[in-house]
Write a structure and sequence with these properties.
By secondary structure, the chain is α/β, with parallel strands linked by helices. Helix content is 58%, strand content 10%.
């Protein structure tokens, strides 16, 4: 399982321009959506944007032309958030500035900068309750000063709050089977009760995916995500639901179950190895300290060997007690003084 499963699923579902176009058409204002020639939408690499910023932002960046026929260009950013971020508008603005700087480097003779529209698909549990625009981050008392608003940037995000969208809305969007299912599981996978309750609503879409070209690969991605995110105590119920989808689904489930079992076995072996190494290291250190203390006692008190009683005290001593005995060796006049409590 990837360490960033939400990112992986979202990108797998929407990196294809046709899937991104279907989602963006449902999210943008109608007038804007109608002005875009969606058949011109293409991926635009964001590789030259600051790596630290891209690590926080989804790197699904697209370019499109307008229906006007003019050489007008539009940049669309599509990403998702699994946790709330009050600074999201500021991050979005930073991303826009870097995209514009890159555009200027690549198009030095261009007269205009392309508009950049940022849409964020949120599957934050409980819904998105924080900033949606740069105005939300600015002190309203300061912004109330006449003329102030015209002197600062204005920037708003399109926040698509999956937590507030029911199954009917998701079904109504003209999405392919895999993108639609991805939004459903992103919304519900961290709430297994809701996921299992809505499962039957999505069964026909999953069957559609399984029958489509390349559908097994997408279905495998989906199920791998589910078993990686859903609380393990619900895995049997989830497996039972998936099993009802037929032989193709069962084949995928068995493959993933074997993978997870093998992964768990290897992780268990690795954990056992590390614990064994740590135990061996501690035992070795403890034996070394006992041997050192024994040699000090024999030299200090000119003894050929420790008697059985003191040897037993040595082996029964806690690490803290052994430290005390070592300190006492320096000043003790008798062997008994070293071991006295």
């Amino acid at each position: 399982m990837t360490p960033r499963p939400h990112d992986a699923l979202f990108k797998a579902a929407f990196e294809a321009p046709r899937h991104a176009a279907a989602l963006l058409r449902a999210l943008l204002p109608a007038e804007v959506s109608e002005a875009i020639a969606w058949d011109t939408l293409a991926r635009d690499s964001a590789s030259s944007i600051d790596v630290a910023l891209v690590d926080h932002h989804g790197d699904l960046q697209f370019q499109a032309r307008l229906h006007s026929g003019e050489p007008a260009l539009l940049i669309l950013l599509l990403e998702h958030q699994s946790t709330e971020d009050p600074a999201m508008p500021l991050r979005g603005l930073s991303y826009q500035v870097q995209a514009w700087e890159r555009f200027r480097r690549d198009h030095q003779h261009a007269r205009w900068l392309p508009p950049i529209i940022a849409a964020v698909v949120s599957h934050v549990p409980g819904g998105w309750t924080t900033s949606r625009s740069l105005d939300d981050m600015l002190d309203p008392a300061v912004m109330a000063v006449p003329g102030m608003a015209a002197l600062v940037p204005r920037f708003s995000l399109i926040i698509v709050d999956l937590a507030q969208l029911n199954d009917d809305v998701l079904h109504a969007w003209s999405l392919g089977a895999f993108p639609a299912l991805a939004l459903w599981v992103l919304r519900d996978a961290r709430d297994p009760v809701r996921l299992l309750r809505s499962f039957d609503t999505w069964s026909s879409t999953m069957l559609e995916l399984l029958e489509s070209p390349g559908g097994i690969t997408s279905f495998t991605t989906l199920v791998t995500y589910l078993f990686g995110v859903v609380d393990p105590m619900y895995h049997d119920e989830l497996r039972g639901k998936l099993d009802q989808l037929g032989a193709r689904a069962r084949g995928v489930i068995m493959t993933i179950a074997e993978f997870l079992e093998e992964k768990g076995r290897k992780e268990g072996e690795e954990k056992g190895r590390k614990e064994g190494e740590e135990k061996g290291r501690k035992e070795g250190e403890e034996k070394g300290r006992l041997d050192t203390l024994r040699r000090l006692l024999l030299v200090k008190f000119k003894l050929p060997a420790l008697d059985a009683a003191h040897e037993a005290r040595l082996h029964a001593g806690t690490p803290e007690a052994i430290d005390r005995y070592v300190e006492r060796v320096l000043n003790a006049d008798t062997l008994a003084a070293v071991f006295e409590d």
